Amino acid sequence: MDKKFQTALIHAPRKAGQYIETIQPPLFRASTIIFRNTDALFNRHWTDDYDYSYGTHGTPTTFTLGDNIAQIEGGKYHLLTPSGLSAINLVNSCFLYQGDEVWVPDNIYGPNMEHLNYLESHYGIQVRVYNPIDAATFQPTEKAKLLWLEAAGSITLEFPDLIGLVKKARAHNILTALDNTWGAGLAFNAFDFSDEHLSVDITVHALTKYPSGGGDILMGSIITQDKALHHKLFRTHAVQGIAISGDDAAQIQRSLPSMQLRYEQQSRNAVSVLKWLQTQNAFIQVLHPSLPDAPGHAHWKKICTDGHSAGLISVIFRPEYDLAAVRKFCDSLNLFKLGFSWGGPVSLVMLYKLREMRTLENTHLQQGLLVRFCIGLEHPEDLIQDIQNALKQLQPQHK
Ligand SMILES: Cc1ncc(COP(=O)(O)O)c(C=O)c1O
Questions:
Q1: Residues 291-340: pLDDT tens digits?
Q2: 326 CA distance to ligand 1 middle (Å)
Q3: How far apart are CA 266 and CA 260, in angstroms?
Q4: What is the Cα–Cα distance from 107 to 126, expressed in whole angstroms?
Q5: How far is it, in rounded angstroms, from Cα 397 to Cα 368?
Q6: Cα of 386 to ligand 1 centre, how many Å?
Q7: Angle value at C-alpha 385, between 380 and 390, nearest 5 degrees
Q8: Is 20 a domain residue?
Q9: Are residues 168 and 226 in the same domain?
Q10: Same domain, 251 and 269
Q11: Ligand 1 atom with least separation from CA of 150
Q12: In this predicted model, what pLDDT tens digit does every residue of 165-218 receive, in sequence order?
């Protein structure tokens, strides 16, 4: 058929689908996905496994990334969301109903707590807090539906008794959801951890961190091993219209081959910086799960059998260093940039007023201002030098 110029521009003669083999999988961008005919339209299974019907439900690009993340984490079914936080929120809004009880560790990722507080005030969900290093404080009632886990906590880096908590949740028929961003599927297998082959039910992962690795792309995942759970999550994902960009998925896909190398290098760099930090007088406490006196160290050792510990280290300044002094320290750093997040090439620093962030009395933590270092891919000797220079700027305020 002869086409007018305008139509010919749109319906060009060369069609996609003439694949060549490339290192990276082809990138699909789609809102509309074209059905071959009405048979294909009426036989579509958008609620089933990874069928193609509309851009929000997925494309080969997003399914390829999801498959890879599920494989890295040791799970089976996957959903991708536009950020780690949206993955967390999806789990909360999928499984919590009015009157249900949800349990969270006191060191939970702050915006998760904010979302749960929102659900509490709007929908009557009851939020209960347990001490991440004392599994006995998890005391579910018959209303409990969901237990959140973080291993390790992303600011104070306590490693919880995953074995004890998951067993107790199982005994009470409570779903377990692990924020797996720190372990990233590399420090331990959340779907088969410990020699007892325990498994959490759901993992969420801020792919923004190690899988992206660039400090530039936001994304989250939800991984399960159970088809029924996945379908519940899938329906919630679909009705909420959650979708990710194919371009973003392709960028993360491109970073995956180097993810383990980056993770292990950042883990090693962090240990080098950690050793030096421990020798410094300015800090009353240095937090990292590999330290023998770290809260939850024994649990870390049992679960993270390869000795990985991601790139996060926190320090608590001695109380004589007031807010102005610790701010000066942060502002004096040069290689470390002041910013949220982690897992990218550039080392980051963040200052926290710990006392304002916790519900329980945290006797395992010293009083003082907390600074978290996220170790990037720079040489650790340069990072140590940077911290040393910033510490020299400090004058303790004797009270
Ligand atoms: C432990 C943890 N979980 C989830 C998130 C949320 O990820 P995103 O920034 O992609 O929303 C973060 C972000 O800092 C995090 O630290």
A1: 999 999 999 999 999 999 999 999 999 999 999 999 999 999 999 999 99
A2: 24
A3: 10
A4: 18
A5: 13
A6: 26
A7: 125
A8: no
A9: yes
A10: no
A11: 1
A12: 999 999 999 999 999 999 999 999 999 999 899 999 999 999 999 999 999 999
